[in-house]
Amino acid sequence: MAEYDYDLFVIGAGSGGVRASRVAASHGAKVGIAEEHRVGGTCVIRGCVPKKLLVYGSHFAEELQDASNYGWTVEGMKFEWAVLRDAVLRDVTRIENAYIATLDNNKVVHFLERATITGPHGIRLASGREFTAKYILVATGSWPVTPVFEGSDLCITSNEVFHLPTFPNRVVIQGAGYIALEFAGIFNALGAHVTVVNRSDAILRGYDKALCDRLLQITMARGIEYKFHCPLTKVEPSPEGDLLATPGQLDPIRADVVLIATGRKPKTEGLGLESAGIVLGKNGQIAVDDHSKSVCDSIYAVGDVTDRIQLTPVAIREGHAFADSVFGGNKRKTAYDCVPSAVFSQPPLAAVGLTESEARNKYGNIKVFSSDFRPMKNVFASRHERGLYKLVVDANTDRVLGVHMIGPEAPEILQGAAIAVRAGLTKADFDATVALHPSMAEELVLMR
Q: So what's the architecture of 347-445 in CATH?
């Protein structure tokens, strides 16, 4: 008889856990996986996928307004939240079923219930069933951080925002990170009055300051209000049936929905990791080495639960590398330099590599090239919003250290630029590349 029930048992069926399960099974491992919510994890069920679909839906407001300049007459424009919401939720279910089919096709046994760790090789399901596994992979992801204040239980997080029964005409959002600003853009474009409150005056920490300043300028012009240095201190129901949200010492703001988007933390509470000698970090993260192994030789972790880089593609890479290393005879690790990222705000921004300040601190002697331009689409639509692209270059080697962009379709353009930064190409390589005209992307090779 086999020494263990499973070669690998995965806790958490998000993108990283499912990828690790599938690849491990393809290497011949007997794999089990448990998920207490829905298969697909944060990205598929309550994160980037449904949020991007809402972004697409909200773009039609701008496109329809601009249509007349292109010769179109659009009459009787009307937005119905329930139609968009339900279409998004149906697609979430479709993708969830595709994930389940992937597990089934690879003969991965899946359990739709919570699992906890009972020791270096032990797993217990919520139903009471217990299993043993040679290796355990924790891929439980992250969960919204919810500050506690009077009336905080009346607020929602990004987990609930996709299920709103009616469209909120007034939205207060606490936080100024990517989740907060993406939802601010969505609700603003769809016609809601949006107020963003934040404990500091900084938005999108980690992104180039020039891009953040440009986004702030544009979104304020679009009607989003900001109240800085005043996080919410109180939320209460009003006699009229809506909410009164009090930021700091300011007067209350009337709202139909108050959304808390103050970050996410690793979802490790109650997993039983202490039974395997694993001590969590200050944010609740599992400390792992370059190959995703914890201090317990039989327990690994990938994705947001490690608090390295909280991005779905990173979790997928980590899960794949783990499976190849442990079960495929190909020991390898994930590279974390030159990871591209995007904020699907309106307009969106995207970046890869070092910001100007990071590059200056690390290399000292740098050059910064920029293009501040009005996209052709905005000119024709009589919009005055301007795009901004930046190249950060090592002055000694001419190597491009970072690319930063804000403007229409910035994330789509950035992916190609990320390859160039990853490959170590120089500013001269950019200059030698013929421009694709007319396009916004050509600005990347025209900076002098």
A: 2-Layer Sandwich (3.30)
**Active-site residues: which are they?**
437
Same fold, 6-144+265-327 and 152-262: yes
- For residue 119, the model assigns a pLDDT of 96
For helices 48-66 and 178-189, angle between their N-to-C axes, nearest 10 degrees: 40
What pLDDT, on a 0 to 100 scale, did the predictor assign at position 215? 98
pLDDT at 438: 94
Q: Write out the two tokens for 72.
A: 């179109």
Q: What is the 3-state secondary structure (H, E, C) of the chain?
A: CCCCCEEEEEECCCHHHHHHHHHHHHCCCCEEEECCCCCCHHHHHHCHHHHHHHHHHHHHHHHHHHHHHHCCCCCCCCCCHHHHHHHHHHHHHHHHHHHHHHHHHCCCEEECCCEEEEECCEEEECCCCEEEEEEEEECCCEEECCCCCECHHHCECCCCHHHCCCCCCEEEEECCCHHHHHHHHHHHHCCCEEEEECCCCCCCCCCCHHHHHHHHHHHHHCCCEEECCCCEEEEEECCCCCEEEEECCCCCEEECEEEECCCEEECCCCCCHHHHCCCCCCCCCCCCCCCCECCCCCEEECHHHHCCCCCHHHHHHHHHHHHHHHHCCCCCCCCCCCCCEEECCCCCEEEEECCHHHHHHHHCCEEEEEEEECCHHHHHCCCCCCEEEEEEEECCCCEEEEEEEECCCHHHHHHHHHHHHHCCCEHHHHHHCCCCCCCCHHHHHCCC
Give the whole-angstrom CA distance, residue 150 versus residue 232.
9
| pLDDT value of position 125 | 98
Give the span between the Cα atoms of 137 and 68, in whole angstroms.
Answer: 55
Query: Domain 152-262, CATH 3.30.565.10 — does that match?
Result: no
Query: Where do the structural domains in the chain lie, given as residue ranges?
Result: 6-144+265-327, 152-262, 347-445
Regions of the chain short of the pLDDT cut 70? 1
Domain at 6-144+265-327, CATH homologous superfamily: FAD/NAD(P)-binding domain (3.50.50.60)
Question: How far are the Cα atoms of 5, 328, 350, 414 from residue 339, in angstroms, in the given order?
Answer: 37, 25, 11, 11
